[in-house]
Amino acid sequence: MKPAIPILRSFDETKAREFYVTFLGFKIDWEHRFAEGMPLYMQISRGDCVLHLSEHHGDCAPGARVRIETPDLDAYLDGLRAANYKYSKPGKAELQPWGLREIDLADPFGNHLTLYAAA
Predict the structure, then answer these.
(1) Which 3-state string (H, E, C) describes 17-77?
(2) What is the pLDDT of residues 28-65, one digit of tens each?
(3) In terms of DSSP bridges, do strands 41-46 and 27-32 run parallel, antiparallel, or are they unpaired?
(4) pTM of the prediction?
């Protein structure tokens, strides 16, 4: 098997692009609609992390959580804070009892990205 590709529910194309592409720095690999005016389904990636975002109601429910290993977590968080995205101001990653440093980021649709790195 290969790594799983999570599908996260989205409701607004503009907000999805602003959060995932402009703020988090993902790139859009491809987009699909069955016809003009239909819901958007797209693949985004950053490094080896691949996510699918779907506006289709039957694909998934909002409120999912995915864990993303982020080796240079502090530098990445510094970049996010410098981006001055008005809907998210990430703090510092916190050390967890299981030995990882983690931070949770919520997207505009109620999904959560837990970014983590070794302590």
Answers:
(1) HHHHHHHCCCEEEEEECCCCCCCCEEEEEECCEEEEEECCCCCCCCCCEEEEECCCHHHHH
(2) 999 999 999 999 999 999 999 999 999 998 899 999 99
(3) antiparallel
(4) 0.94
b vs e for 39-70, b when ≥16 Cβ sit within 10 Å of the residue's Cβ? bbbbbbebeebebbbbbeeeebeeebebebeb
Helix (H, G, I), strand (E, B) or coil at 83: helix
Tokens of 89: 């101001």
Q: How far is it, in rounded angstroms, from Cα 18 to Cα 98?
A: 33
> Residue 45 and residue 50: Cα distance in Å, rounded?
4
